[in-house]
Amino acid sequence: YFSCLLNKMNIRCTTPEDLMNMQHCNLLCLPENYQMKYYLYHGLSWPQLSYVAEDANKKIVGYVLAKMEEESEDDIHGHITSLAVKRTHRRLGLARKLMDQASRAMLENFGAKYVSLHVRVSNRAALNLYEKTLKFDKSEVEPKYYADGEDAFAMRKNLADFSMVETSQYDSEDETCLNIEPSLDKLSLGEKAT
């Protein structure tokens, strides 16, 4: 069932038309919510960094909202603002595929050295995903980071290793589970069907 469901998924770069549905997905999945102008800011400033996962009916079931940090030209890095996958589509590898796509775009378009994110210290599921699956490291605790006063772990992943990954492990015409935009063929992040 899951393999069949994954075969009908599409991961693609976000368009302005997606922003309302991304916001809706955010409201369903996360306690941190953003006004539409924040989605627009990301979409207009870094259109190549945010991605959506859509099902066979073109409904958005997940997204990653990302940006480049503008603090210093010596410390070029990207930041994951928000990652969400609807409960009905979790445990399919979509979060990893969305994160990999955004990270690769940061590296290839902007020369990012690493990607950062924040996660609630109490969010064990997300911490497990970021540390074990996506290989992020905790860099520090940011006290009272969230509006409700909860602390956050600041996390980061070095992208130098990411550039070493051969894209051939992701590219296979007849065994790829995800349909990726033709312009992103070399960035295809589908897993081999099992």
Automatic annotation (TrEMBL):
Outline the extent of the N-acetyltransferase domain.
9-160
**One cellular-component annotation, GO:** NatA complex
Is NADP among the key words of this record? no
Q: Which residues form a coiled coil?
A: none
Looking at its record, which EC class is this enzyme?
transferase
Would I find Acyltransferase among this entry's keywords?
Answer: yes
Q: Which UniProt keywords apply?
A: Acyltransferase, Transferase
What GO MF annotations does this protein's record show? Answer: protein N-terminal-serine acetyltransferase activity; protein-N-terminal-glutamate acetyltransferase activity
- EC identifiers of the protein: 2.3.1.255
What's the catalysed reaction?
N-terminal L-seryl-[protein] + acetyl-CoA = N-terminal N(alpha)-acetyl-L-seryl-[protein] + CoA + H(+); N-terminal L-cysteinyl-[protein] + acetyl-CoA = N-terminal N(alpha)-acetyl-L-cysteinyl-[protein] + CoA + H(+); N-terminal L-valyl-[protein] + acetyl-CoA = N-terminal N(alpha)-acetyl-L-valyl-[protein] + CoA + H(+); N-terminal L-threonyl-[protein] + acetyl-CoA = N-terminal N(alpha)-acetyl-L-threonyl-[protein] + CoA + H(+)
Instruction: Please state which protein family the record places this protein in.
Output: Belongs to the acetyltransferase family. ARD1 subfamily.
Name listed for the protein in its UniProt record = N-terminal amino-acid N(alpha)-acetyltransferase NatA
What organism, scientifically named, is this protein from? Answer: Hydra vulgaris
